[in-house]
Amino acid sequence: MPLLLPGYLSAENKSAQPNIIVILTDDMGFGDVGAYGGKFVPTPNIDRMAAEGIRFTQYYSASPISSPSRAGLLTGQCPGNFHITSYLQAKAGNQAAEMADYLSPDAQTLPRTLQAAGYKTGHFGKWHLGGGRDVDNAPAITKYGYDEYASTYESPDPDPLLTASGWIWCADDSIKRWNRTAYFVDKTLDFLKRHRETPCFVNLWPDDMHTPWVGNMEEQRIFPKGEQSEKNFRSVLIEYDRQMGRLLEGLKAMELEQNTIVIFTSDNGPAPSFRGSRAGNYRGCKASLYEGGIRMPFIVWDAAHLIPSGKIDDASVICAFDLFESLCRIAGTPLPNGFASDGQDMSKALSGQPQKRTKPIYWEYRRNDSYAFPKPFDNDRSPALAVRQNRWKLLVNADGTDVRLYDLSVDQRETTNLCEQHPEKANALKEQVLRWRKSLPAAR
User: What residue spans in the chain does CATH classification 3.40.720.10 cover?
Assistant: First the structure.
């Protein structure tokens, strides 16, 4: 039976299925948002989402880097199943990293499942699941279950208003770098307006807060000198938060907020992390399987207050793999035949009832060292595999070396390796994650 959120869905009123917007911020750390303790600049509009919805403190991305994180969210499966274990780039780089050039169009995806159930589906923002550079044979975004899209350079069919050159941005782009999030918010609102009689699923995936941080024309003139400065970061975060407010107000103006769920999160941890502060002082950053690379802000907002407002859920452990099943349940949409998820249905938690996790979460980042870890962050470099089960988290390399065990119930900063104190637990989790790793398709 589908989970019925009061006012959203009933057997007699299928038209009440909610609109679902998934905001996947790019490289936003746990500590960037005021509601999560961020102190860089005020983020009143994102904080408003938290105040009017549920803020989760134990949500994990599918990977500490862009492409596999996005693949895991869309498919509900470990991205290693699709030969994506780091960021997709040029063909030679993908081959060196033992990866595919793009996400298989045969993959079962959340938007395709919702589309088959009557949803209109849109993707507005960064794609990074194939295409760009010299990958000229990547499937169109519509092949993955989207009716409409507008995307950036790292996609099979980038929006010409965003790509005047063969790179992620340039001064000649019609839509300037600092206006991109506004552009994608406008696309989202227009899509919802044109399809207001039909339930909609939208990926709003801006490429903020990823570098380069170009906040206005003055900062564009000094690019790239200040592209990773804290000043530029602050200016971009201020504008990004303002656009989140425009989205909420746009929903209200169209009287759609009463039947729309907005999920706000990030694809992976920050880089640069500004001495760990952008990661909420968790250990790690982007490209690391420590908490700072995979523990993300996660807010579920609905203006109809059909879920508890201002709630903080510190108990539920949720992962991006869970969203496929959970959102289908909330939408009353059947799962595809033969669907196999690496997540679980956490719809009760998303609806305001803390929920115990029964499945472990597994991560893999990189098959080899073809991609160097960013030099400034060497202390945050992690082993290549990780598993979280209940309060325990273990990291290890695929060859069984560099085993690290942490008790997250008392050590969320991952400061004390407990392998010697708990050898049986360390060995059991090590063997468990290595078996899981061996179950994945062989590297390409």
Answer: 17-353
Q: Is 412 helix (H, G, I), strand (E, B) or coil?
A: coil
Provide the H-helix boundaries in 314-422. 323-331, 347-350
Per-residue pLDDT, 214: 85
**Strand order from edge to edge, sheet including 404-407:** 361-364, 385-389, 392-396, 404-407
The residue assigned the tokens 């298989």 is 104
Closest among 209, 207, 227 to 219, alpha carbons compared: 227
Residue range(s) of every CATH 3.30.1120.10 domain in the chain: 363-439
Q: Which residues pair with 398 in a beta bridge?
A: none
Tokens 């078996």: give the residue.
435
Assign a CATH topology to domain 363-439.
Arylsulfatase, C-terminal domain (3.30.1120)
Q: In the prediction, which pLDDT does 168 show?
A: 87
Rounded Cα gap, residues 13 and 8, in angstroms: 9
CATH of domain 17-353: 3.40.720.10
pLDDT for res 1: 36
φ/ψ of 34, rounded to 5, equals -55, -40
pTM score of the predicted model: 0.94
Residues with Cβ within 8 Å of residue 286, at least 6 apart in sequence: 27, 64, 65, 268, 269, 270, 271, 273, 293, 374
